[in-house]
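Re: weekly structure request thread

Next one in the queue (308 aa):
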Amino acid sequence: MPYTRTDLAMEAFENTEGGAVPGVSVSHWETDCVQITEVLVTDNEAARELGKPKGSYLTLECPRLLERDPEARLATASLLTEELDRLLPRREGGAPVLVVGLGNRNITPDSLGPGVVDRTLTTRHILGAPCAAGRMNSVCAIAPGVLGVTGIESMELVEALVKALQPSAILCVDSLAARDSRRIGCTIQLTDTGIQPGAGVGNHRKPLTRESVGTPVISVGMPTVVYAATLARDAFAWLSSQSGDESPHEEALADMEHTLLSADIGEMIVTPREIDAIVQDAAGIIASGINRALQPELSDEEIAAMMD
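Done, posted below.
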């Protein structure tokens, strides 16, 4: 398999030789203006081939999000709601859903998780109020920060909260890294495999999964960065094509990317100059999808009023 570095399962599959991997099934369809790709990884060998754990990966792509198209935003949020509702376990006995926003709110490309938590309707503390009777599900949320700031691993905090709250599910939100820069700001990935905090920037931490915490973990993320080595590879490929050289040079380009990733430059990441607006918009879209999925008995107007 050619060397690649991406958090998106669909990109890992696209990069496979021959475009087929035993134990992996891929489906594509389109709804409204959103292109949907589902990657199902069903065995351990396929998981090793793709570098992704076994499970389901659903990707929503909508380039019109970068134009701040209102219809595209609504369509993407609605689809996210539907898919989250499908993945979340049935909530019984009043156990809360714990929303975890991973990342560093002081670094814009890494602030998606905390931004979503800021926009998530939390209700665990008001379920006894008359307005909540029979209409609200229990939701709590935390943005645990990052080890370099707090001195505490995200997993340590989540494990403590799981022990105290006994949530029915954990919903994690984090920034991702993409292979293709065109997917930044317009692609959302959902998966039932959990998440590894810091993986998007090569800072691997203890994974947050059902196996590690004993609770279903669903993760949602959007690419906000690409690796500089990946951009260098693409730049050389583009320059080669512009010079009239039609040869693919895939092996040489892959070797170059692998060499760069192995050097100091390999840890450098790149983000668009308009990343502030991209993250703000993405946080709003993802939070809208989460709020609708977790509070189906409330209208959009009621959710907005309670967030003010």
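DSSP finds eleven helices and nine strands in the chain. Strands lie at 24-31, 34-41, 55-61, 97-101, 139-142, 169-178, 187-191, 217-227, 269-270.
Next request, please.
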